[in-house]
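Entry 14. Two folds queued back to back today. First construct below, sequence then structure tokens.
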Amino acid sequence: MARPARELIRFEVNGDWHELAVEPRTTLLEALRYVLKLTGSKQGCDKGDCGACTVLIDGRPQLSCISLAMTAVGRKITTIEGLAEGNRAHPVQDAFDLCGALQCGFCQSGMMLSAAALLADNPRPNRDEIKQALSGNLCRCTGYTQIVDAVEVASGQRDVPERDERPTTRRK
């Protein structure tokens, strides 16, 4: 059986333009992880349920496991590898670390990218808006409290919790 023909596509990822030859059925997640070797976006459910594969396309959260790579032609994609500004962590990355927001880290990149997109649109969201923005990202470890706290810290609406308030899984 013959393999499907490959199509040449071009898109921007983390500030750099890439040209790839992909089969029409190639997902954006597959192109990012297995062709470009950007493994920060996780391959979780492969059906759009968990959010571990979330990337930003033109600043909007998108599930890359259910998006064909061809739909990203000419668009600007940001993965977790491109969220930092040079050598300086994005405020969301700092806040997640300071708040001990995540445990296993599998959902981390998707959570952070969804949070960054929220703060770009709404710099001072309330807790309900944060929960709604993160509702497409599942975390099986934390219970979400520290994640929502971290987004509030990143927005400047909350101070970093005192050491006694941080989860015990935080590294020292």
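Second construct, same run, same settings:
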Amino acid sequence: MADVEGKQISKRTKASMSLMKEKSSVVGSIPLGYRKEGDKLVLDDDEQAVIRKATRLYEDGFTLAMIVRALDEEGLKNRVGKPWDHRQLPSMIDGYEPSRRRTLKSKGWLGVLKQL
């Protein structure tokens, strides 16, 4: 009986989510870089700027820890007003490759953040 009820709940939930998506309602959590206005997602300029900055630093050879430090030095906080954490960055950095080795020596930076 519990198994049948569990399947019914699953079907109803999926049907409800599909209907919301068809009506263009926001379903699930709001991705970084956007905010909810009514039932629509719109770009959040402040969060988009942080995403662009983190992506640029990553492309310049910065490690995740160094990016966190740079964001902290500028006083940039995450959506809930707390300092960034290196575990948050991979999902927001465009083109992030988890296995890519980061070497700043090859760029001549030697870990100096002030050369931005």
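Quick look at the second one. DSSP finds three helices and two strands in the chain. Residues 104-116 have pLDDT under 50 and may be disordered.
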